[in-house]
Amino acid sequence: MKSLLALAVVTFFAVTIVMAVVFRNRQARDTLRFVRNVAYGYIIAIVLIAAWRLWMS
Q1: Which residue, 6, 10, 30, is CA-closest to 20?
Q2: Mean of the per-residue pLDDT values for the chain?
Q3: What is the pTM of this model?
């Protein structure tokens, strides 16, 4: 099941990148920007939680 999910994620990003770069699809570019912003938020949250835990210990 994990390999199927991984394949689906890789396929989604491959198709989205091709649509954004080759076909200059605006919706695909917006989707990639959204995923990038979510990833930045996730990284910031992990860093803040790690700093908080370090401060509390």
Answers
A1: 30
A2: 95
A3: 0.79
